[in-house]
Fold:
Amino acid sequence: MEKPRIMVVEDESIIALSLQRKLTNLGYQVPTVVPSGEEALEQVASSPLDLILMDIMLKGEMDGIETAKQIQQTHSIPIVYLTSYSDKQTFQQAKQTAPAGYLSKPFDERRLQIAIEMALYKHAVERKLREGRQKFETTLTSIGDAVITVDGQGKLSFLNPATEAIIGWSPTEAQGQELHLVLPALEGETQITFSWLQKKLLGNARPVHLSTQTTIYAQDDSVKPIDLTASPILSEEGDLLGIVIVIRDITKRKQMEDALKRAAQELSEKNTRLQLTMERMSVLSQMNDSLHACQSLDEAHEEIGRSLPKIFPEHNGMISVCDDSQEQCHTIRVWGNSPTMVFGQAFQATQCKAACMQKAQLSSNCDPKESCDLANLASSSPYLCVPIASQTELFGILHLHLPEGLPQFWYTESKKLAQQAAESMKLSLANIKLRHMLQEQSVRDPLTGVFNRRYLEETVTRELSRAQREGYLVSLVMLDIDFFKRLNDTHGHQAGDLVLQELSQLLQSNTRKGDIICRYGGEEFVVVLVGASPAMALLRAEEWRKQFSKLLIEYKGEKLQSTISLGVATYPVHAPANGDILRSADLALYEAKASGRNTVVVWENPASNINTPLSNSFREENEHAPKHNQPLPLLFTKGET
Structure:
C-alpha cells in the first residue's frame, strides 16, 4: 500500500525540518515543505497530496486560514492546523474552514500520528458519504417518476425535478409544505392526506400501491391520472419517521388505452380488408407462377386475361397489350357486371395519359384536366390506369374503374395491388421476349438473318420423322456461290458479305412460308422444301439459279455479278435415312461444281437399289430433259453486263 503524501506548510525552518523528520520516521512521504501560502497553492496545483499540515500564522500576504480556504475551493484535501496560539478567536476562524484536525505546538510524534490518522480516516469516511449521497441524489434526479419525501409530521422534505413537471411546485416552493397542499389528489372520492397514508401503511413495512383511479389536480388546474405508490420510512424501533411517495403520470397510458380500444375496433375492420387482400395476393402469386411457365406471349396474355378479373372482382376493368411498335394497343379482356368504360378493339397508346407518362394515374372524370381520353364514364367516381412498362418498352395498360360506394382505403389498396400486378406482368412478358430473342439469336445467322447449321440439323431430323409418319416428301436444295474465294480476294470480305446477304434475301423472297432457309457454312446454303417432289425442287432451284445469275450487286461504284451451283436430294427417293439426305444433297452439289458450276444437279446414286413409283415417275417425266444445265462462267463486271 502506498504511503500517504503529506505537504508541510511552515514558515519556521527549524520547526519545518523537525516536522519533516518526524513524519518520515512515522512512515509518511513528505514530497515538499513550503514556507508560505502562495507556494502552498502552487504545490497543490502540481502535486498529488493526501494531507496538508498547515501553520495558521504564516508570514506573507496569506495566513494559513486564508490559504486553506483557497485550497478547499478547488481540491478535496484534508488540512490539519498547526499553531502556537490557542486563543478563542483564532480557533473560531480556523473552525469555519472545517479542518480535519488541530494540533497545538509543541507536540510529539505520537500526537502527530494520531492527528494525521484520524484526519485521513475522517476524510475517507466523508468522501464515501458524499459519493453515496451524490449517487442517491443523481438517481432520484434522473428517474422519470416523481419522488416526494415527507417527514413524520407530514411536511415535504424532498422532491425531485420530475415532481415539478407533474404537480407544478418547485422544490423551493414545496419545502416544508403540508402534503395535501402540494399534492391535491383524490383516490376515487377520498382526498389523499398524510393521515390517510398513515392508515394505508399501518402494519406494512413494504411499499403500498394504490389503485390507478387516483387523480391529481396540478397547480395550473390541470387534471392528471396518476399511479401512486407509498413506502414507509421506519426507525429501528418501528416508528414512522416519514413516507416516500412515488408518482407516475399515466396520462399517456390512459390515452394509449383509449387508443387501443379504437385500434381494436379498427383492427376488426382491417382483418376483413386483409383477408380480401390476401385472397387477391394469392391469385396474383398464382398468376406469377403461371406466367413464369408460359412459353409465348399469346399464352401469357391468356393467363393475364384469366387472372385479372379474379384479382379485381369488385372493379370494372380492361387489360390491353401493345404491338411490336408500342404505338397500337388492342384489348384482350374486359370484365365487370356493368362496365362504364367504353373502348374500341384498338387504340393508340398516346391516348392514355398513364402510358405517355409511364406512371400510374388515379383520376376522375369530373376534372377535365385529369380525365383520360379513353374513358367514357357514366359517373365521376375515380378510375385507375397503370402502364405495364419497363424503362424502354411498353407492354400494355391495365385500366380499372373503381365503383362508387367503396371504402376510401380501397382506392389506395387497388392502386398498390394494380402496380404489383403490373410489375409482375412486366417482368414475365419481358422474360418471355428475352427468351425468344436469345433463342432466335442462337438459331439465326447474324450476317444473313436466315437459320444457322444447328437449326438445320434439328429441323431436318424433325421434318424427316414427321414425313415418315405422315407419308410425304421432303426435298433439300444445297447451294454454293461459285468462285466465292476469288470474290473475297478480289473485292474484300465486305463485298463477299454483301453477296451473301443478297443471296439470302433472294431466297427469302422466293420461298414459301413453310420452307426453311439455312446458312450451312461459309458460302453454302440449304433450303428445306417440305412436301416438294424432286421435279418441283428442281424447278425451284433452277429459278433461283437464273435469278441470281442476273442479279447485279452494287459495291463501291462497281456492279458485281455471280452464280450459284445447286444440288437437290429428296427423302425418301434419294436417301432413306435421316443423315443421308444432307449427304446426298452435298454430293449433288459437288457434282454440279465438277460439271462446270452455275448448274442444278438432282442426286441419283447409281449403286442405289431404290426403285419407288415416285422415282420412276420422275424419270419418265424428265426422260427427254437434260439432267444438267450447261455451266456458265462466273462473271465479275463493272457497270452494265
